[in-house]
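One-letter codes give the sequence; the fold follows as tokens. An example follows:
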Amino acid sequence: MPYLIGIGIAITVCLFAALTKFDRDRVFYPTVVLVVAHYYILFAVMGATLHVVLAESIAAAAFIVLAVVGFKTSQWITAAALAGHGLYDWFHHLIIQDPGVPVWWPAFCMSFDILAGAIFAMLLLQRRSAVA
């Protein structure tokens, strides 16, 4: 069920962004990356030690840097960062032991991140072909 909910929310967010034209602004998808990068920090604050909070903060910083670089240079970096965060969700438990993370979260977040990153990549391809 978490996979289906993540997919449904990704479609809803991306569709809403397209219909409202929020996604026409370069900052929309980098902001999505910033938001998803912070959830594991929140979970660590709620249920883990300071050591785990610091580890989650370091991991989040990598995605935050990618979001900023993607915003400043190539939106493809942002799409890759969003989808890459989905892969990170899959392996997160092997990298950082965070007892604050809900059991269902990695599946939900992974499906959201990968699909939202793929939708953004398709939009970038569509925009590229529209310009050509």
